Amino acid sequence: MDWLEQELKQALDRKEPSPDFAERVRRRTRGDGFRTALWPQRWLAAAAAVIVLAGVGLGYREYQGQVARQQVMLAFRIAGAKVNHIQTQVKERMR
Hints:
This protein is mainly α and 95 residues long.
């Protein structure tokens, strides 16, 4: 056997787990670990961030709608003034 085969055989040989292995598995599956205690907090923080971003997005969209409405109203006022000016000129020339 060459050195690579020996290394692989040694790496893949069965090894007994540490004495506290079963207790560590039980602890993790019960959720007593520090990491599992943080999961609900992380999910709540992520949900809060999504809600805030959605609210900001809707607020910005509402703002854009108001700006567009103001621009349309200004365009109507300008167009109305131009039409009135043309009407008065037409009436004066028809006299």
